[in-house]
Amino acid sequence: MGRMVTKKQPEFVLEAEKAKVRPPRLFKVLLLNDDFTPMDFVVVVLQKFFALNREHATRVMLQVHREGRGVCGVFPKDIAATKVEQVSAFARQHQHPLACVMEEN
Length: 105
Prior knowledge:
α1 (39-50) packs across α2 (54-67). The radius of gyration is 27 Å and the shape is rod-shaped. By secondary structure, the chain is an alpha+beta fold. It has helices at residues 39-50, 54-67, 77-93, and strands spanning 26-32, 69-76, 99-104. It has a 3-stranded antiparallel sheet with strand order 2-1-3. 41% of the residues lie in helices and 20% in strands.
């Protein structure tokens, strides 16, 4: 009886290429000081749009007042842009000149 010969196939291991995905660039959302927007309104904005508790919102408001600007939060670009627009529209709606801007972190 003849021997059965099996040829050994070379083994191939397929590995998924890892795409080099960078984390999204982050942007700081800042409020800028002015001489007209009431401090209480700034605290409301920080609570409403940035989910800060009253104490934290008050600290950020005082930073804006004393240093001319304060960081409300750090977000991916699209979220930061949305926050800037929401805050700006809310301030205009209430007839306050509160400026909200974003800059790369």
